[in-house]
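Budget justification aside, the reviewers requested a transparent look at the raw inputs and outputs of the sequence design task funded under Objective 1. We therefore reproduce one unedited record. The lines immediately below are the structure tokens for a 306-residue chain.
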């Protein structure tokens, strides 16, 4: 039995197979419409979510399976003090696979050690968000045609942004990747990721504060929101939340083939006027998220569709 805790759980070759499967699902949805009949996905979300929870549920429904679960800790026995390990033992009696989001780093790892069904980490604190990373990789490959040899700008909350941390871990395995890290001093990429991932793998990167300085040389811009829920006090959040706003004027500085991604939800870091720009790919990114999660469910359940 296999789980997904980190994007590093899959080799580059396995990721290619997963993305190829997602591409076939996109092209031939009817072929997979009954692949998971009789199977149940449990979504255990101890933290609010729209896209991640609903896209997992949509993926399972598209495969002909069923869904169950909860959307907040308050609506589960966690409110009574039940441990993650006891919850997953119980859920293993009801479902065939589960997706878990939890505010505490490492909670999904605890779950998988006590589970008798595959566990998907759907986000744990500021640590990892592997299914978003799989979504990002599929989106980039679909839009650019490859995953290597590009300068990727990561902008916004690089300190707490688990999507950014997961994406860096995944992309350093591809040749010719370099990063431009765009953030205020207070939200810089953690030192352990710079040293243990970027420096250790000899990945070129530069850190800048001004988005305008970075845009002309980027192949891809990955925007993130400043996450209110990760701040310890309101004052720091208010001071940081409007530090970057991508608008049409700034987009004019970017190359004609530079796509903009965002894991969503956005607050105001991307102006709505950018939505009509053909380089704005964040809503297409959400659709790719359903395809890759369908592929992941099939892979973890070891279901092959001929």
């Amino acid at each position: 039995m296999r789980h997904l805790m980190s994007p590093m759980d899959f080799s580059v070759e396995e990721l290619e197979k997963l993305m190829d499967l997602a591409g076939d699902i996109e092209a031939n949805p009817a072929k997979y419409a009954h692949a998971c009949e009789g199977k149940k996905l449990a979504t255990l979300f101890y933290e609010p979510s729209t896209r991640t929870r609903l896209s997992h549920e949509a993926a399972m429904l598209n495969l002909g399976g069923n869904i169950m679960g909860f959307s907040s800790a308050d609506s589960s026995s966690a409110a009574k003090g039940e441990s993650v390990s006891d919850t997953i033992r119980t859920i293993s009696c009801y479902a065939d696979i589960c997706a878990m989001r939890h505010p505490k780093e490492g909670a999904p790892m605890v779950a998988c050690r006590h589970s008798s069904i595959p566990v998907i980490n759907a986000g744990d604190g500021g640590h990892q968000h592997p299914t978003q990373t799989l979504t990002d990789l599929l989106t980039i490959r679909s839009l650019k045609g490859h995953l290597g040899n590009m300068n990727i700008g990561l902008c916004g909350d690089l300190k707490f942004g688990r999507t950014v941390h997961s994406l860096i871990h995944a992309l350093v395995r591809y040749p010719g990747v370099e990063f431009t890290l765009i953030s205020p001093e207070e939200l810089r990429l953690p030192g352990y990721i710079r040293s243990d991932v970027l420096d250790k793998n000899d990945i070129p990167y530069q850190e800048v504060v001004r988005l305008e300085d970075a845009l002309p040389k980027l192949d891809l811009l990955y925007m993130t929101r400043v996450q209110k829920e990760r701040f310890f006090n309101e004052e720091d959040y208010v001071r940081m939340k409007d530090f970057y706003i991508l608008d049409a004027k700034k987009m004019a500085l970017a190359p004609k083939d530079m796509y903009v991604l965002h894991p969503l939800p956005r607050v105001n870091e991307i102006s709505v006027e950018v939505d009509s720009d053909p380089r704005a790919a964040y809503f297409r990114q959400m659709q790719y998220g359903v395809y890759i999660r369908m592929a992941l469910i099939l892979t973890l359940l070891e279901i092959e569709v001929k």
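The radius of gyration is 19 Å. The first strand starts at residue 40 and ends at 45. Computational costs for records of this kind are itemized in the attached budget.
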